[in-house]
Design brief:
Helix 1 crosses helix 2, helix 5 packs parallel to helix 6 and helix 7 runs parallel beside helix 10. By secondary structure, the chain is of the alpha/beta class. The radius of gyration is 22 Å and the shape is globular.
Length: 448
């Protein structure tokens, strides 16, 4: 999200910002991510978006890799057609950055967050403007890097439009998607289902997997591309609702549906740097530090919650396994023993009236969630001080839950026979439940 800064602030200067974006791109590439969808909630009236986009494109340019960028026009707030057209033109028509902008079949990809409220005519006109060079852009962006600071070229460009339009809401049924697609079929090339507000494989509402499969069936039947969502968990620190993904089980369910059932051409992992929504998969060292520094800061995340953001390095590492599986269609061979954990750092409230400030969906419980990728059976010891619990793990890739047995920082030891294969400790202690329950996972991993 271009509204947020992660590793450095704007006051550090463009060179530092570019270096921080290079760091993020390298982290993403290391686990198999091919590009970023740059969410832009503002543009011409909020020039920081243009500046940061130029710094991100410059970072990708300097790395000389095959990492791609595209825009996700956020239609929630201040953007209009002129904003969206300018953001695409400014980079797709740039001699420096055109090759970095993601293309499908030679056409520049544009996705969105929402936007169906504007109607088919709006999006048909926007597409026509970009493809025919009409309604040319007229505004410079002097705060952006010099390469794109002038008035962008309005030369015609082919567009590949894949919006996320919320047909039927967050958990649409087949008839809802069918009705939306009927309206937009001549205009769009595909669609993205923003399916994070659910509990994967819950078996009833709010399970988003049936909605993803309905999207896939209808889009593919119509000859359109489908982009599916992948998510670690979903909770906003002040959003009033929480969806329990049971550690990595929900993440696995979404990947396996994509791999085995819905077969989307693309997947988008939601999100990277919007820490207050709990969906991030970044291995950053101190999310609370960056949440304070970004543009949203404590206006979105209440100050009392800033200490509860945690690194998601375990999710970062595990994603590489599923990304390879999705890309190849074959389960990756497990060559090394790896154990990933996720846990909440405050115990669940003892009763519904015990300071619970949000509606929770799914099996919320005091657990340590473990996902193990093992070459052979092994034993995992989960300890809190002198108290421990042993769990026998099979070979292969499995998920299980370990009841929390005490407060404190959990430690993990993996053994096979008399051999200690690996050991590590969690990053954060588990505490008694407090006035604002911590529903963000602390994640980590160990490997031999």
């Amino acid at each position: 999200m271009l509204a947020n800064q992660d590793y450095v602030s704007d006051s550090s200067g463009s060179e530092s910002v570019i270096a921080s974006y290079e760091r993020e791109i390298r982290q993403a590439q290391a686990i198999g991510i091919d590009g970023f969808a740059l969410n832009a909630g503002g543009w011409l009236r909020e020039p920081r978006y243009i500046r940061r986009a130029s710094e991100m494109f410059e970072a990708a340019y300097r790395l000389h890799g095959n990492f791609k960028l595209m825009f996700s026009a956020d239609m929630c707030c201040s953007n209009n057609a002129a904003d969206v057209e300018d953001m695409v033109r400014r980079f797709a028509n740039s001699s420096r950055y055109s090759e970095i902008y993601y293309k499908k079949s030679g056409r520049f990809v544009l996705t969105t967050f929402a936007g169906s409220k504007y109607g088919p005519g709006y999006w048909q006109q926007l597409r026509n403007d970009l493809e025919h060079g009409s309604h040319p852009s007229e505004q410079p962006a002097p705060n952006a890097l010099a390469y794109v600071s002038g008035v962008p070229s309005s030369a015609p460009m082919p567009i590949y439009l894949v919006p996320a339009f919320f047909w039927g809401g967050e958990l649409p049924r087949t008839k809802d998607i069918d009705a939306g697609l009927a309206e937009y079929k001549p205009i769009i090339d595909g669609a993205f289902y923003w399916g994070i507000a659910g509990v994967p494989l819950l078996g009833h509402t709010p399970d988003q997997i049936p909605s993803s499969e309905a999207y896939s069936n209808l889009l593919h039947r119509a000859g359109k591309l489908y982009m599916a969502p992948i998510c670690l968990q979903f909770w906003g620190a002040n959003a009033g609702r929480y969806y329990e993904y049971s550690g990595y089980s929900g993440l696995r369910a979404m990947w396996m549906d994509a791999i085995e059932v819905s077969h989307p051409e693309w997947v988008e992992i939601i999100t990277w740097n919007d820490f207050v929504e709990g969906t991030y998969v970044s291995p950053i060292d101190d999310p609370a530090r960056y949440a304070k520094a970004n543009d949203l800061g404590s206006s979105v995340a209440p100050p009392s919650t800033l200490h509860i953001f945690h690194t998601h390095s375990g999710a970062t590492s595990l994603l590489a396994f599923f990304i390879e599986w999705y890309k190849t269609g074959v389960q990756p061979a497990i060559k090394n023993d790896q154990v990933y954990w996720a846990y909440r750092t405050q115990l669940a409230p003892e009763s519904d009236g015990d300071a619970q400030r949000m509606k929770a969906y799914g099996p919320l419980a005091n657990r340590i969630y473990v996902t193990a990728n093992l070459t052979a059976p092994a034993v995992l010891r989960v300890s809190f001080g002198k108290t421990s619990r042993l769990v026998t793990l099979p070979a292969g890739s499995t998920d299980l839950e370990v009841p929390e047995i005490a407060e404190g920082i959990p430690s993990f030891e993996l053994t096979r026979g008399a051999s200690l294969l690996a050991h590590a400790s969690g990053e954060d202690p588990i505490l008694e439940h407090g006035p604002y329950p911590d529903l963000y996972y602390s994640t980590g991993f160990l490997h031999d």
